[in-house]
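>> Question from a student workshop board

For tomorrow's exercise we were told to take the sequence and the ligand below, predict the bound structure, and bring the output to class. My setup keeps failing. Could a helper post the expected result so I can at least see what it should look like? The ligand is 2-deoxy-2-amino glucitol-6-phosphate.
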Amino acid sequence: MCGIVGFSSLNKSAVGPLVNGLRRLEYRGYDSAGVALESQDGIKVYKQTGKVAELDKLLSHALPESERGKYTIGIAHTRWATHGLPTRANAHPHVADNGNLALVHNGIIENYAALRSGLEKRGIKFLSQTDTEVLAHLVATFDKGDFLVAVSEALKHVEGTYGIATISARHPGEMIVARKGSPLVIGVGEKDIVVASDVSAIVAYTHQVIYLKDGDIARITPDGIDVRSLDNSPVTREMQEVDWDIGSIEKGGYEHFMLKEIFEQPDALANTIRGRLDPSGGTAFLSGLSLSPRELAAVGRVVIIGCGTSLHAGMVGKYLFENLADIPTSPEQAAEFRYSNPIVGPNDWVIALSQSGETADTLAAVRESIRKGALVSGLCNVVGSTIAREAGRGVYLHAGPEISVASTKAFTAQVIALLMTALKLGRTRRLSFEHGDRLVKEIQRIPEIIKEVLAENDAIAKVAEKYASADDMFFIGRGILYPAALEGALKIKEVAYVHAEGYQAAELKHGPIALLSEKTPVVALLADIPGKEKTLGNVQECRARHAPVIGIVTKGDEAAAAAVTDALVVPHASPEIAPIVSVVALQLLAYHVARLRGCEIDQPRNLAKSVTVE
Ligand code: AGP
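>> Workshop helper replied:
Here is what the output should look like for this input. Compare the format with yours to find the bug.
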């Protein structure tokens, strides 16, 4: 889950656009970076460990502005290590053919060891431990004059996933790109062509893009783009318009993208809701599903697949679908699902949740469900992403770009989209107009409700100050708040590096309570839902073990506020909305604890925004 960029221009230097493109993609991996630049004098490669800023520093010394004009074609890479430590030798681009060829890669070559030993037997010397260097040498061995054919032949020997870009001094002015399993987008500007792992590195130059599909390979020259399949037959790919603007991928005055995206939620969720509610029918419109009421009524079971935060949203979905549509619903962790020979079929509706739309395990679970004849739809944020395209139907979140690795607005938008889907399904079954109508009104209130939670930011920051030094925390909740507790724990783990566990509140007594002490704060989700009184009982049990309790309590709920050590006050909301309201408060808590612990909030160590490898 690295980020790759390619730039080809008739007259503009590639150096600036490549470095800026890497900055935009840094959330995909940030342990080392590099560029390869082509000019009449051949290929120049610069790589550095650490963030893109370190590479930029290196370039500012090694390549003065005055010299940059001659490099109008180049490729670049920011890495999330899969094979080999984050060292300069393992950083991309990797070279072959005595430095004449350079290649960058996002993905994993599963049979690289076998390919490597074959190449070593032919006398090829390797400079790195990476799987990617094998591909560079393979392309060079197949180069008999046609660059695209050389790359195709090499890729036919590769097992695994790839998004690649490569240039060669033997083929001046040409860049070859290809994809299988990893995303790759081509941006077509007036005089420039930009290739990238996702559109955030392209929208600064153009909104006209081509999404490559698995098995596509393309030859890019300043004059144009020639897309083919690996057996060299021409392929047509349509141009599409990207609706994101440059502003949406800037910090907009916030210190971190995470804080910006938390505060964007009222607008982002208003976008998710816009044009999708039908007050006259007490239901929802979700045209992207293109499912008739008859098809909806025929669904026998719902299966929601996802990973990480998306899985937690799916677990909230279980409560929504079972309570509003009386339909058995099972949330499934995508990797477990895909390898479990899952029991799904024509009566099942599989909903795939993925912010990026590129998560490898979720994509594979979609393909497995399609193979088994299930009804499949996607719920994605990134327009044109692979899961969205392969599911063939679904709902876009329209939450805008999510740059911070820790997912925030995508979670709340996913829960709202699932709520509107459950409402629609419920209204084709036993859900009354009155109940539907109440929910439509409640959903319309969400942006305002979230604004009230955000207004508590300073109070939440104060409580965070009190607990920022804790290294262990527990999050507890019941019913529809249980997955919200899991999400709260995940956020504080990934951005503040606090060892946190989320539990169904009743589960504490069955073991974890042994870990409680004055050093283990417990965050209790106490919004007004059935079971709140029981959770209050669990709060007493925690306090009896001297554990301080931070309560997410409803405004005016004096009893709950009195029962906890510190209260984070949130506005009243119906049970269906309570997970959204509570999680926004938990996002702010995690953000401030991370800020106070001096953590790299937008790019936490060892993580990446979209997990495109298994
Ligand atoms: C969440 O903050 C993490 N970035 C991670 O758990 C994420 O939710 C997971 O990788 C799934 O990503 P997706 O929604 O893009 O498929």
